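For reproducibility, we list the full input for the NAI complex.
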Amino acid sequence: MQSVHGGRKVAARRDHVTADLPSRARPSESSRSRFDARRHIMAFFTHHVCRGLSSSAVRNVAIKHLTVIGGGQMGAGIAQVAASTGHSVTLVDTNGEILKKAVKGIEGNLKRVAKKKFSDKPESGEEFIQKALQNVSTSTDAAAVVQGSDLVVEAIVENLKVKQDIFSGLDKLAPAHTIFASNTSSLSITDIASSTSRLDRFAGLHFFNPVPVMKLVEVIGTSATSQETLDCLLNFSKVLGKTPVSCKDTPGFIVNRLLLPYIIEAIRMYERGHGSKEDIDIAMKLGCGYPMGPLELADYVGLDTMKFIMDYWSAANPENPSFAQSESLNKLVAEGKFGKKTGEGFYKYK
Ligand SMILES: CCCCCCCCCCCCCC(=O)CC(=O)SCCNC(=O)CCNC(=O)[C@H](O)C(C)(C)COP(=O)(O)OP(=O)(O)OC[C@H]1O[C@@H](n2cnc3c(N)ncnc32)[C@H](O)[C@@H]1OP(=O)(O)O
Ligand SMILES: NC(=O)C1=CN([C@@H]2O[C@H](COP(=O)(O)OP(=O)(O)OC[C@H]3O[C@@H](n4cnc5c(N)ncnc54)[C@H](O)[C@@H]3O)[C@@H](O)[C@H]2O)C=CC1
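The corresponding predicted structure, in tokenized form, follows.
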């Protein structure tokens, strides 16, 4: 195991709990202690009450240590938020260079959070950053680190077989109480879970990009997921400072079921020449108040991921012309232009 920051301190600390909240959601000084007390009650629930819920294996779960598989934009974001709310996190990727980049990115983003949250107390901000970084370690070997995990969150490439392979291997090594969760955007949780023998302890935990900023988490249960597992994940999401919603394991869950047709139609509109990419994006930003237009958002999500999603939906619905191949998306992906993360997609980035 390659340990970058190595720390394994797991106590949920008061100054970590509200760390990632945007300023509009942060409590005033006068309400902070009440706010913190509520968070502590939720942390207590996750850490202790889940233990006694029922006779299933998950009753022993106290989510203190998690393994996040995939050190890309989502995995790094999930690790950042978990570490800054007092959890010990091991971030895993097959590529050590990606892990170094992820830790550097986490440090940079923690500085942005600290600058906002501790604008009047820079020394507290520095302490917050160091404590969070001590909670993160990295590894290129998931099998070697999963034994100590209460929760495994997978955020690797959007490919069913690759996700099934990783979970099937870890299922044989992880303790019985460990909950497995996938951050998939579009794949069936039931299909991913079928590669394991812990169907009652398997769920979707779908974060939004950028994880430190976006407040939503979709908690997705299959017909086999136990209520104890769902309760633990709903409470864990709250301890992270997020607002969870419960979803059935249906295509796209809630958000992507609505977002997918919107982005598809925007790309088709651009391909038909009915509007320039800039005008389509400006129209949706100024007309609907969205922070990003649909083509900017596609670049932000990653065009490789968009193509994985599109190919999967297309294979599942071959008769539906909505999911027909997109010439512009295919061309950009073939050229390695995956959007913001590679410096070019529909737009160029510095
Ligand atoms: C025809 C074929 C088509 C194929 C179609 C396939 C369709 C597939 C669709 C499915 C997509 C799947 C993705 C998924 O599963 C779900 C998603 O995640 S969808 C994406 C959701 N995200 C959004 O919608 C993001 C929208 N954008 C924004 O909210 C803002 O633009 C953003 C916050 C990203 C940036 O804001 P901006 O003002 O532009 O920049 P700033 O840099 O000033 O940031 C604002 C604010 O936020 C802080 N911040 C930003 N990033 C981070 C970070 N990583 N960590 C910490 N803090 C961060 C920053 O500091 C600023 O704070 P201030 O207090 O305002 O200074
Ligand atoms: N990009 C987005 O906006 C969102 C993506 N998601 C989902 O999250 C997942 C990850 O997406 P991103 O972080 O954007 O992708 P990414 O491409 O930034 O990162 C994926 C990472 O997984 C690593 N990886 C691949 N196979 C692996 C394996 N077997 N073991 C360990 N690591 C492995 C890669 O090296 C890469 O670093 C996907 O399932 C995606 O659909 C969910 C919400 C939003």
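Confidence is low (pLDDT under 50) at residues 1-60. The pocket of NAI (ligand 2) is lined by residues 69-75, 92-95, 98, 155-158, 162, 166, 183-185, 207-209, 301-302, 305 (CB under 6 Å). Both points were considered when choosing residues for closer inspection.
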